[in-house]
Amino acid sequence: MSNYSKILEEWNAEQENRKALFTEFLYQRSGRTNGLFTDLWEEWCRESGEQAREEHFTAVKSGEGKIKTA
Q: For residue 30, how many other CB atoms are within 10 A of its CB?
């Protein structure tokens, strides 16, 4: 079986469409107008990670956090 056959066999059109739609959402929310989609996912992950970290420490401070901190 060729690599292409394996790719096509495992292809999930709905999931690929969802990725494309989410990438377009990321592009629109970024405010870019240059047509470049480079690093959109990385920017999203960084922003989401920073937000999750803040939410975690807010929860810890209020006693709702499940992980103890120093």
A: 14
Q: Is residue 66 part of a domain?
A: no
Does residue 69 sit within a domain? no
The answer to whether residue 8 sits within a structural domain is: yes
**pTM of the full structure:** 0.69
How far CA 64 is from CA of 6, 60, 67, 68, 69, in Å, comes to 46, 6, 9, 10, 12
Q: Write the pLDDT tens digit of every residue in 9-67.
A: 899 999 999 999 999 999 999 999 999 999 999 999 999 999 999 999 999 888 876 66
